[in-house]
Amino acid sequence: MTSFKYDQFVAFGSDSAGLERILRGLQSLTAILTTYPFLLALLPAAGLPLDAALILAALGPLKGHLNLTRRFIRFFWFLNSFGASYNLYTAVPSQGPGAGKGAEVWLDILRFTLLGLYGGLESLTLPDLLGVPGLAPFGAARTKALNVEAQRFWFLALACGIAANVVRMTKAFAYAPVPQHGEGYGTGQSPAVDTDNLGAKEKKEGEGEEPEKMDLNAERQRLKALVVKRREGMRRWRRQVAFKVKTLGRKVVSDTLDCLIPGVILGWVNIGPGAVGIAMLVTTVLTSRDIWERCGADVAVKRGLTQ
What we know:
Elements: H1 4-14, H2 16-35, H3 42-45, H4 52-73, H5 77-90, H6 103-124, H7 126-129, H8 139-174, H9 195-204, H10 210-258, H11 260-266, H12 273-302
Helix pairs in contact: 1-2, 1-12, 2-4, 2-12, 5-6, 6-8, 8-10, 8-11, 10-12
């Protein structure tokens, strides 16, 4: 039987999003190697019988073909973005569409709308990039202008995504478990239980009746159990917050680095193509993790490892 990692990689490569990430990683490598050709000089030193000059000459056309292939894979993704935006806008509110939503939800609605516009323009200009005679409805100049506008929409969508995730991270820290009553009400802290005073009180009233002493011991044990339970709840909450903030932080870093790509095309960021390629490679790895884990979960279900 094939290994779990093998099946996970097959699922990742068969998934449209996973395949697009693989091609994106290869495209980023072509940009890096084209900008830093001295890396190709390491191939003979590593014992690989490859001609660095021939590889360098092939990297330019290869980069264009990889980009074009990725755009074919993403051809209908803009419909999913518009659908996600519409579903978020019409989801759940009891007072009517668009009511009772937080800032992060509105930012997500705007983000998916902008991503839909970005993807729609990319798909619209795809025939012009094929180089087929007679199949260029917009022409080279207008196609270039539309693609620049698409990059503008992508940049704004990334900015909305960053803002939405920052809001979520802030809210993750803001809301702690709240006791139902007592000293810790509204603060997320457990009420202090002075067990020493309880013991002193028990000793002072030791001359009382035996049933009262038993009731006092039972009450002290109940309060101790309550404190332990609330402390465990706080520890569980902290673990959940740490996991959520880590996941959201990874998305913020990824979106921030991705902003460099449209920023360079729009002239808003002044860095070289090599730096763009490195940023693209890093974000490809970061954004591939969720897809990789999803494919792993699917493989686990097929193998009967999880319910």
